[in-house]
């Protein structure tokens, strides 16, 4: 190995080690607010806290430094949802998306131009910049600091227990740790991911696709209960993956499905790296906040059950969680705290949750729609020029001809 590279690696490890030792000593005994997770939800909770001018005695922790690792995400967002959830910086946007192309199981294709469009973002950069703003505004940020347990409250304070044996107390905890930690099992709060779906994807190069298109492929053989995606990722590069319905997990091998998809549609791509991830795609109306304990983002099942998008949702819900946490600090009575919990939940349900509830039901009904309906529907709609294809045209054209498809969508009415 080149001595410069060896020196660089040793230096990086030494810095990490020193930081870990140094930070261990910095942990305070008490915080007003502890945020667990430096993903979109936790970071935007922090942004709302500093934007309100509150910067004292807040801790943000993450078990890793997320932007130093590849983030398991296709990084696609709708413009409206994204820009409505966070103050977007230009540097976070890799490219703009104007068209979505739907590929039916038999290969028929329709292109759809969304009037608002979307982006492929650079999540690592977004998260790094948000964290650095939080840190410079006075929020203490500890990375490579894993939370093991959140103990139920004692005199209004919960204890956060870390893997390194350290502990701290907190008046309010925001759990933005993603779908898998299940903190709060001992309390009456949502602690289980709903409808956890496995996904598998690859970063590939040597691919020639339009830079302003995303592609969605459906089919019971290709991705039972889910879909495959192809999102551009700069010139000659893409993010190609598959998400499966939870009920198909036992009889399908994701790696084999992805390899089959790649060899059939993109045989000459070069795979740079593969990733696996889990997406909590269900929606349950269970409490996501109790006095002093707020769940947000994937930890509160905020993913859109049909599109499986969760970035803007996590940002939005994270921001609401930050606002709610601030209101909780300084409130003494259980009644006051419960009111804040209700306001937080109601706001989330109003902004996205109620719709997700309906979409989760649509998703279940879509499972029984045969491939044939998608083929016929796509063939019918492919004759409409993409600039003229609107959602209402899709509905009108499908109505009556594909009753099973329309029946699946009844929950939206
Ligand atoms: C393969 C894949 C592709 C996806 N593609 C898209 C997409 O294109 N568009 C879209 O909108 N959504 C997509 N999603 C969903 C999206 O990634 C999530 O919904 C979003 O990241 C949720 O943000 P969050 O902040 O709630 O959680 P996360 O982003 O998961 O962040 C949680 C953070 O908590 C930290 N953490 C976890 N446990 C602990 C612990 N014990 N102690 C301390 N820290 C901890 C983690 O290290 C992590 O940094 C995709 C998901 C997957 C798996």
Primary descriptors:
single chain, 413 residues, alpha/beta, FAD/NAD(P)-binding domain, D-Amino Acid Oxidase, Chain A, domain 2, 3 domains, eight-stranded mixed sheet, 10 helices, 16 strands, binds flavin-adenine dinucleotide
Which whole number gives the mean pLDDT? 87
Bound ligands, each once: flavin-adenine dinucleotide
Q: What does the radius of gyration come to? A: 22 Å
CATH class of the largest domain: Alpha Beta
Total count of strands: 16
The ordered H/E elements are HEHEEHEEHEEEEEEEEHEEEHHHHH
Largest sheet properties? 8 strands, mixed
Q: How many structural domains can be distinguished in the coordinates?
A: 3
Number of separate helices: 10
Q: Which regions contain 5 or more consecutive residues with pLDDT less than 50?
A: none
CATH architecture of the largest domain: 3-Layer(bba) Sandwich
Description:
By secondary structure, this protein is an alpha/beta fold. It folds into 3 domains: 3-69 and 124-194 and 283-364, FAD/NAD(P)-binding domain; 196-280, D-Amino Acid Oxidase, subunit A, domain 2 (D-Amino Acid Oxidase, Chain A, domain 2); 367-412. The protein has 10 helices and 16 strands. It has helices at residues 3-26, 40-51, 79-83, 123-136, 254-265, 311-328, 334-366, 371-381, 391-398, 403-408, and strands at residues 30-36, 58-62, 76-78, 93-103, 109-121, 140-143, 147-154, 157-162, 167-175, 196-205, 213-217, 227-232, 237-243, 270-280, 289-290, 293-295. The strands form 2 sheets. Strands 1, 2, 6, 7, 8, 9, 15 and 16 form an 8-stranded mixed β-sheet that branches. An 8-stranded mixed β-sheet has the order 3-5-4-11-12-13-10-14. β1, α2 (40-51) and β2 (58-62) form a beta-alpha-beta unit. α2 packs across α6 and α6 runs antiparallel to α7 (334-366). The chain is globular and about 65 Å long. The model has no long low-confidence stretch (mean pLDDT 87).
């Amino acid at each position: 190995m080149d001595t410069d590279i060896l020196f660089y690696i040793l230096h990086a490890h030494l810095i990490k080690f020193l930081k870990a030792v140094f930070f261990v000593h910095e942990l305070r005994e008490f915080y007003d607010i502890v945020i667990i997770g430096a993903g979109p939800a936790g970071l935007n909770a922090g942004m709302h806290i500093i934007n309100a001018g509150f910067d004292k005695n807040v801790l943000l922790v993450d078990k890793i430094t997320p932007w130093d690792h590849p983030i398991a995400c296709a990084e696609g967002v709708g413009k409206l949802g994204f820009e409505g959830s966070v103050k977007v910086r230009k540097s976070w946007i890799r490219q703009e998306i104007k068209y979505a192309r739907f590929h039916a199981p038999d290969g028929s294709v329709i292109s759809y131009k969304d009037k608002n469009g979307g982006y492929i973002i650079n999540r690592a950069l977004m998260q790094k910049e948000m964290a650095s703003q939080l840190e410079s505004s006075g929020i203490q940020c500890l990375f490579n600091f894993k939370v093991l347990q959140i103990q139920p409250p004692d005199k209004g304070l919960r204890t956060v227990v870390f893997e390194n044996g350290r502990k701290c107390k907190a008046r309010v905890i925001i759990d933005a740790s993603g779908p898998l930690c299940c903190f709060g099992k001992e309390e009456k709060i949502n602690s289980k991911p709903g409808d956890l779906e496995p996904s598998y994807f690859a970063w590939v190069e040597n691919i020639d696709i339009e830079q302003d298109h995303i592609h969605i492929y459906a089919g019971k053989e290709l991705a039972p209960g889910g879909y495959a995606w192809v999102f551009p990722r700069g010139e000659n590069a893409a993010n190609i993956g598959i998400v499966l319905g939870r009920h198909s997990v036992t009889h399908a091998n994701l790696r084999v499905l992805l390899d089959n998809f790649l060899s059939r549609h993109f045989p000459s791509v070069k795979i740079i790296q593969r990733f696996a991830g889990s997406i909590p795609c269900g929606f349950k109306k269970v409490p996501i906040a109790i006095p002093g304990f707020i769940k947000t983002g994937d930890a509160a099942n905020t993913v859109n059950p049909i599109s499986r998008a969760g970035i803007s949702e996590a940002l939005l819900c994270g921001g609401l969680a930050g606002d709610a946490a601030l209101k909780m600090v300084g409130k003494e009575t259980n009644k006051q705290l419960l009111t804040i919990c209700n306001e937080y939940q109601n706001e989330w349900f109003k902004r996205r949750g109620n719709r997700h509830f309906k979409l989760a039901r649509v998703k279940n009904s879509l499972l029984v729609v045969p491939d044939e309906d998608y083929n016929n529907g796509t063939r019918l709609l492919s004759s409409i020029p993409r600039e003229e294809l609107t959602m209402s045209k899709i509905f009108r054209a499908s109505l009556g001809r594909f009753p099973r498809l329309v029946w699946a969508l009844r929950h939206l009415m």
